[in-house]
Structure formats: structure tokens, C-alpha cells
Amino acid sequence: MKNIFALLLLSASLTLILTSCQPDEIKYPDALIGTWTITKSERMGILSDGSVDKFEDIENAGTLDIFEATPPAETFKEFVFNYTNFQGDKVTLNSLIYTDEDKRRVSFSKVLCGSPFECDIVWTVEENKKNKQVWSTYGNEEAFFYPNDRYDPTDDDLHLKWRITLEK
Amino acid sequence: MKQLCFLLLAFSPIVGYAQNGYSAGFSLITEYSYSSFDTKGMNGFVNTFNEFWGQKLSKPYSEFSGHEFSHPKFGIGFRFLTQGNAGFTASTAFLYGRKKYQHSATWANDVQNELDFKVRDLSWTVTTGMHIRNAIFLEVFFDANGRKLEMAHATIYQDGSKSLSSEYKLNGLYTGKIASSDIGLQLGFRLGPILLYCKPTWALKNFPPGKDLVTLDDYTNVNYPPTDFPSDYRKYTTDPLGYVEQNLGVKTDDFEGFRLAFGAELIFGGKNKKKD
């Protein structure tokens, strides 16, 4: 039985090593650091027949600056988002930016309100290249980001999409 | 099975060391691992979700069979064996495999909910046992298996846009790490440099211990709790406080279980020496 216990112990040790080798915190990809131009901003409604009705389609809509946080942090960076919409309204957002392990989502932290919950703008990464990023965020006919009904998509005839194209 | 493990472990070294000499060699390994997981958590979600939305779904989720994450594995290893008609053999190897799998439901207005799984397995395996004429191998098997599970819940709109954003609460990227140890048998037949084997293994439940929730892997708490993936969708939606208190999220250790692997080990070396 000693052999069995020795092998089990060995196996448990290696399991722990294997799992501990996986980083608990994910480093923010440094490749995103820098100044990006919002070369395109498109806001649209997605109709139930699959057609798309654009109500904003503008070029050079602003900039996104991503830079090292103060003090420096591995898991997030700081950003300044300067955006001008099709009506000429200017928006400046300045906060922390996070991503997930596979960089499938990017979050602008606490830019909609001060609460720890439901205040982030969460972008879905559609295209991820060194010099070009395409990010989208969504809503339904009530609102972008956090509409009141966040469970049932059949209540809405229209879904909203905001897509930005960023280039370095 | 315990007795068989004990006999193989206890007597194989004696048989082996009774012979003269030994040989060893590196090996390349490929296998198909037909694996199962405990569907209680995921099918709990599927059934409560389908029941909660009923007629609003034109195509409800189908139940998980538990074999969705079966996949091929590849690796390298090292095998040791003693000489003689019957002898001791042992091996160790690292194996890696991954699988992608998608599961979806469609709403009455053609919006889809999609579960997009990505599973990566890294195993360290140890076998020990006996061989007969370097042709038939009977071994016990242990491994330490690290499984990384990612499950993206996306909303797919009628124009094909795929959202992981916050407009629907379930959207997100859920991840879990599953550390498991497995025990089993490996039965092999060697043809020249190739050892063909079959390997049934069982996960040792709670070894190592821990029942983590599959949780949102994002640095922000985008949602009010609950933020883990639910095994009871009705409770998640209608009584979130009760859901959190009762800890009804899908558990990561649901994603381990019985495996049946068929494989081939190409051994470089490890041959019986010819008699003078």
C-alpha cells in the first residue's frame, strides 16, 4: 500500500504544481498601450428580420489613450476616451481598463456611475490585431449597456449595437 | 479492483528485478480520451432555463450527454522495462489535449443564446505494472490532471452579431480550473515499437479537495450577485439572494469523471535484448 500512497502523494503534488503554474492574475496585453484613433463609430439598430438600421456612421470620432496606471499595475491600465458623436456631443471618459484572459472582452471600469456593479462599459472584441481593434457593445430598445430587462430578448423588436474601429 | 492494483504494484518489481538487465526509451503518445462529466449542474441549468421560458423558445437547449469534452491527446513520455519473459515496466508521460464545443438555444424571435466551451487538459501520468514477453502489458495508472474550462455565454442577434457584453445578465466569460487525480488500469499489446493500449480511469472525487464555483473571470464585478453560472436558472432569476445563500452555481468538479482512452505509444528503445 505504501507504493499507492507514494504515487497518490506524487500525483497530488504535481496537480498542485500544474494548477499553481497557471497565473491567477492575467497580465494586461501591453500591445494595447498607446494612442488609438477611433477611425469609425457606428451605432445601429438590429431589427428582428436581421436587417440593420444605422443611425450613426462617422469617421475620426475621437481617440482612446491607454497608458500605464499610477502606480503601475499588471492587471489593468488607465485610459482616456475622447469621443464625439454624430450630433457633435463630446464625451470624455477617464478610468481603468480591464480585459479577460483571451481578450474577448474589454471593460471600461465604473464609467457609467460610481457603484461597483453595473457601471462598466463592456465591449465585445470583434477583431484583435496589433494595429487595429474592433469593439462592440450592445443594448435593447430601452438603452445601451444595462437595460431594465436583462433576461428576455423577445420583449424587444430592436436591439442596439455600437461598434468602434480603433487604429494605431 | 483494489486487489488487482495491489497485486500488480506489489509483485511486479519483484518479477522485474529477478531478471537480468533492463531497457528504457522515450515515447511519443497519442490517444483518444472518451471522457464523461457529471451533467447535474449543466443539465440543471438547461432544464430550469427551458422550463422557465417555455414557449418563448423556438429551440430549447438540449441536455448534455456528459461526453461533450471527449478529445484526442498527444504527449511525450519515458518507459522503463526489465528484461525477460515476464518483467516490471513503468512509464511516465505528459499529455495535452483540447476541445471546443458549442451548445445553443434559440428564442422565438431568432435571437440565440450560445454556450461556447473551450476545454484544455494537461496530464502527468504514471503507470507501473508488468509485461509478458515485452508484448502484453498490464499496468495500474495514476495521473494528475489539470483542466482549464472556459465557457463564454453569448447572445447572437438576428444579423449574426455575437455579444459577450452586459445587456443580458448571463453574458460573460466563465472560467474554472479543475485539478483532479485519476486512477485506473492500462492494458496494452506491443507490436514492434508501438504499444497499443486501452485505459479506463476514474477520477478520485475530492482529491485534491475543493468545490469551486465556475465564476466570471473578469476583473470587474459587472453584475450584481449572483455572478457565477447557475445550475438553477429560475432561482437565479427570481430569488438571487436565496440562490447565493444556497450556493447554486455550477461546480467545477462536475467537469471531471470516468475516462476511457484508446491510444498508441511509439517507443524508441525499450526492446528485449537478444540472447547470445
Describe this structure in words.
The complex is a heterodimer of chains A (168) and B (276). Chain A is built from one helix and eight strands; from the N terminus they run αββββββββ. Chain A is mainly β and 168 residues long. Chain A has one domain (25-167): Quinohemoprotein amine dehydrogenase alpha subunit, domain 2 (Lipocalin). An eight-stranded antiparallel beta barrel of chain A has the order 1-2-3-4-5-6-7-8. In chain A, strand 4 (90-99) and strand 5 form a beta hairpin. Chain A is globular. In chain B, strand 4 and strand 5 form a beta hairpin. Chain B is built from four helices and eleven strands, in the order αβαβββββββββααβ. Chain B has one domain (2-269): Porin. By secondary structure, chain B is of the alpha+beta class. Chain B has helices at 2-17, 40-53, 233-238, 240-245, and strands spanning 22-35, 57-59, 71-82, 86-107, 112-132, 136-156, 162-163, 172-191, 194-203, 215-216, 259-269. Helix content of chain B is 15%, strand content 50%. The relative contact order of chain B is 0.20. The longest helix of chain B is centred in the N-terminal third of the chain and has 16 residues, at 2-17. The two termini of chain B are 40 Å apart. Chains A and B meet through helix 1, strand 6 and strand 7 of A and helix 1, strand 5, strand 6, strand 7 and strand 8 of B.
In a nutshell, what does this entry contain?
The complex is a heterodimer of chains A (168) and B (276). By secondary structure, chain A is mostly beta strands.
What is the end-to-end distance of chain B?
Answer: 40 Å
Morphology of chain A: globular
CATH architecture of chain A: Beta Barrel
Arrangement of strands in the largest sheet of chain A: 1-2-3-4-5-6-7-8
Strand content of chain A: over 45%
When the domains of chain A are counted, the total is 1
Q: Strand-and-helix sequence of chain B, N→C?
A: HEHEEEEEEEEEHHE
As an assembly, this protein is heterodimer
Main β-sheet description of chain B? 8 strands, antiparallel, barrel
Number of strands of chain A: 8
What's the number of helices of chain B? 4
Shape, principal axes of CA atoms of chain B: elongated
Mean pLDDT value of chain B:
88
Q: Which pair of chains forms the biggest interface, and how many residues does each contribute?
A: A-B, 56 and 56 residues
Radius of gyration of chain B, in Å, reads 23 Å
Structural class call of chain A reads mainly beta
Distance between the termini of chain A: 63 Å
Strand order of the largest sheet of chain B: 1-3-4-5-6-8-9-11
